[in-house]
Design a protein that fits this description.
Layout (H helix, E strand, L loop, with lengths): L11 H48 L3 H29 L7 E3 L1 H18 L2 E7 L5 E3 L1 H17 L5 E10 L4 E8 L34 H11 L3 E7 L3 E9 L21 E2 L7
Parallel strand pairs: 2-4, 6-8
Antiparallel strand pairs: 1-3, 4-5, 5-7, 6-7
Helix pairs in contact: 1-2, 1-3, 2-3, 3-4, 4-5
Length: 279
């Protein structure tokens, strides 16, 4: 019998590589599922607004009430258009290629998708967006990181609070620094060293919206930032809040072609920083 009918077994390294790819694919599907869930809720809110004000306009014949109803319907339609634009932007560049990317625009698109969710849980957002250059990144993957960090921040503040998103150009390091800071419960010091480990979580399971608790979110964020030749670190004080600081390389002009990203399962030790006061 020919040896072709008996394929050679995979080596341990090949088996690990295959499992890494399967896990990366599963993580992409999880991110897509969470995006669909968030978008569905947002569109449902918009549709309910349109329907309610349409009924209001039909019940009342006076011009003032109808004008108010039509304005609300127009506002809701414009919000639906923004949600659609944000979703389409996240659907672009799924090849993994790196290209000059505007982080401020990515932040705006993420906040459009999470606006109602953050409002529902009484989370206010403060933006400290300085003048920064574009970074060399895959916008879709960086949005995945941003959404994960913002959802984590919201979950850390069940009674409400504030999220601060800051962009800063570190000229000396040649990076743009993205900080997502919350005023939540904080992470105990003994758990910080494992915060980026796969399947490690400080949560008891998914929240009421079905998000979180798998122990894969922050591990995936770390893997994505590593693949971008960037760095991510965490600062946290119990009872005061947590900040994630991401450093991404500035895009050169003109940008040189970059190979598609490959996310690696082994996670190098992350940078640990002492808790710092809010700027």
């Amino acid at each position: 019998m020919s040896s072709a009918s008996h394929p050679q077994p995979l080596s341990p390294a090949e088996q690990i590589a295959a499992l890494e790819q399967q896990l990366a694919d599963a993580q992409k599907m999880t991110a897509l599922g969470e995006l669909v869930s968030t978008t569905t809720h947002e569109f449902n809110n918009v549709l309910m607004t349109i329907l309610n004000y349409a009924r209001l306009g039909l019940r009342h014949k006076d011009e003032a009430t109808r004008d108010k109803a039509l304005q609300k319907i127009l506002d809701a339609g414009q919000r639906a258009a923004k949600i659609t634009s944000s979703v389409l932007a996240m659907a672009r560049n799924r090849s993994g290629d790196l290209e000059p990317t505007d982080l401020a625009k990515l932040i705006d698109e993420c906040l459009v998708l999470l606006e109602r969710e953050l409002s529902k849980y009484r989370i206010s957002v403060e933006l400290q967006i300085g003048s920064v250059p574009e970074v060399l990144a895959n916008g879709n993957q960086i949005q995945q990181v941003l959404l994960n960090l913002l959802i984590n921040a919201r979950q850390a503040m069940p009674s409400g609070g504030q999220v601060t998103i800051k962009l800063h150009h570190d000229k000396a390091a040649g990076t743009v620094d993205l900080t997502v800071r919350d005023t939540g419960s904080g992470i105990p010091a003994d758990k910080l060293p494992r915060i980026f480990d796969r399947f490690f979580t400080t949560k008891k399971g998914p929240d009421e919206s079905g998000k979180g608790g798998t122990g894969l979110g922050l591990a995936t964020c770390k893997s994505i930032i590593d693949a971008h030749h960037g760095r991510i670190r965490v600062e946290s004080t119990v009872g005061k809040g947590t900040a994630f600081i991401i450093k991404l390389p500035v895009a050169k002009t003109p940008a040189a072609p970059q190979a598609p990203l490959r996310l690696h399962t082994p996670l190098p030790a992350f940078e640990m920083a002492r808790p710092a006061a809010n700027p």
